[in-house]
Amino acid sequence: MEWMSEGVCTQVHPDIFFAEPTNLAATGLAKKACGMCPVVDKCLQYALENREQHGIWGGLTVGERQALLRKFKIPRKK
């Protein structure tokens, strides 16, 4: 995925995006980085379509992404 190389996440330590869900400091840092990212929409779309079960993708946690999937019935990428 070509867009990934443009992500802000490539410029910070990756651990903040895959920290334990209870680590609110890391979650906050990851979300802040995503808020400045030029490919955040592509990242979120990828995570939703591929049902990513770990980490912060597109500025959202696993639980937040699962809620979107339920609400909007987003299909899995084929």
In short:
With 78 residues, this protein is mostly helical. It has helices at residues 24-35, 40-49, 62-72.
Description:
With 78 residues, the protein is an all-alpha fold. It has one domain (2-72). The protein is built from three helices and no strands. The protein is globular and about 30 Å long. The two termini are 15 Å apart. The model has no long low-confidence stretch (mean pLDDT 94).
Number of domains: 1
Bin the strand percentage.
Answer: under 5%
- Please report the number of helical segments: 3
Our measurement of the CA-to-CA distance between the termini, rounded to an integer number of angstroms, reads 15 Å
Strand segment count: 0
Task: Give the proportion of residues in helices.
Answer: 40-55%
Order of helices and strands: HHH
Radius of gyration: 12 Å
Structural class assignment: mainly alpha
**Average pLDDT for all residues:** 94
What coarse outline follows from CA principal-axis ratios? globular
